[in-house]
Design a protein that fits this description.
Elements: H1 15-27, H2 46-58, H3 71-87, E1 95-99, H4 102-120, E2 128-132, H5 138-146, E3 149-153, H6 163-169, E4 174-180, H7 192-202, E5 205-209, H8 217-222, E6 239-243, E7 255-259, H9 262-265, E8 270-272, E9 280-282, H10 291-329
Parallel strand pairs: 2-3, 2-4, 4-5, 5-6
Antiparallel strand pairs: 1-7, 6-7, 8-9
Helix pairs in contact: 2-10, 3-10, 4-5
Length: about 350
């Protein structure tokens, strides 16, 4: 047996001993609590963390696979999706689903457009989506999973998607244009207004990846910062992804994928009837969905409220500007003009 192979213990270990071991292992990990990591943990304070743990544990065993058995989770998910849709100017027509994170949200969006094309544009046998080179790798993952060709286009000197390159890349096989709000490498928002207009002109989908910025940019705009339009207020935007467990400050395992209407969302769902166990239906990649993360997301949005998010947004940006000024004092240059707390130097 190699050094990395471990067998199940013949006899169980005392639970207190196990908990002590867990803590000792954790102590050797990155110290996110004291700000020694970037992006992996979004911490809104110890009091909020304790609140999250309690909210999560109330629904620790519940499973959102079956909303009929757990109508509370159905209510929580519907209200979380509705609050997110309203935040992104989706009104009463927008619809969506909670997922386990940004990657699953992104994959569900790509799968949705692929299946919509299969149903409504059967002449397309090799679907393509246009993505800037700065797009999150989850789109390449989705391209591989769902057999959709990712056509990468250049960005300009400002690190935003090059509009001429986007338009030149459109072909009869194009089903989707994707932009970021913001793109993770440089923290800049792509020219979503113009990209959405292109999509509308060519009658194709326009997806906005706001996994990082979704729960920060709207509040920065309310604080008076010059945030460009990126949401459903633009007629050409047909879907948005945004992570609750980033600047939504909820427990890990929570994101939303939103569509302009229910008609588009239906292509996301999977159903299977030819099974001795009866009807099986699932809205996303996973079957079992932890109730705790859904409950914690609902609890967080209600506990924070708009005033709480505005306060956190201001604190985050004040910290960001302090970091940027410090870097510039050292003679380093901030790349581009980032709209939020993500930046490169």
């Amino acid at each position: 047996m190699s050094e990395n192979q471990v067998s199940l213990p013949k006899k169980g270990t005392a639970r207190d001993t196990i908990l002590e071991k867990l803590q000792s292992f954790r102590d050797k990990d990155a110290n996110w609590h004291d700000g020694r990591t970037w992006s992996l943990v979004y911490h809104a304070g110890d009091e909020h963390t304790e609140f999250l743990k309690k909210a999560y544990c109330v629904f620790f065993h519940e499973n959102a696979l079956n909303p009929g058995a757990f109508p509370s989770l159905k209510k929580f998910e519907a209200e979380v999706v509705s609050m997110a849709a309203n935040l992104f100017n989706g009104g009463e027509t927008a619809a969506g689903t909670m997922t386990s994170g940004g990657s699953e949200s992104i994959m569900m969006a790509v799968k949705t457009y692929r299946d919509q094309a299969r149903a409504l544009r059967p002449e397309i046998t090799r679907p393509e989506m246009i993505v800037p080179i700065t797009i999150h790798p989850a789109f390449n993952k989705a391209a591989q999973y769902f057999d959709v060709k990712a056509v990468h286009v250049a960005v300009g000197d400002d690190f935003r998607a090059d509009l001429k390159a986007v338009e030149a890349a459109i072909t009869p096989n194009t089903i989707l244009i994707v932009g970021s709000a913001p793109a993770y490498p440089h923290g800049v928002v792509d020219p979503i207004t113009e990209m959405a207009a292109l999509a509308l002109k060519h009658r194709i989908g326009c997806h906005v990846d706001a996994c990082v910025g979704g729960f920060l940019l709207p509040f920065l705009k309310k604080l008076g910062r010059p945030i460009p339009a990126f949401d459903f207020s633009l007629p050409g935007v047909t879907s948005i992804t945004a992570d609750l467990h980033k600047y939504g400050f909820t427990a890990k395992g929570a994101s939303v994928v939103l569509y302009r209407d229910k008609e588009l969302r239906r292509f996301q769902f999977f159903t299977h009837t030819e099974w001795p166990g009866g009807l099986f239906a699932s809205p996303s990649m996973t079957g079992t969905r932890p109730g705790g993360s859904i409950a914690a997301a609902w609890a967080t949005l209600n506990a924070m409220g708009e005033d709480g998010y505005l306060e956190m947004a201001e604190k985050v940006m004040n910290t960001t500007e302090t970091l940027q000024k410090g870097l510039q004092t050292l003679g380093l240059k901030i790349l581009g003009k980032p709209e939020m707390s993500v930046f490169a130097f």
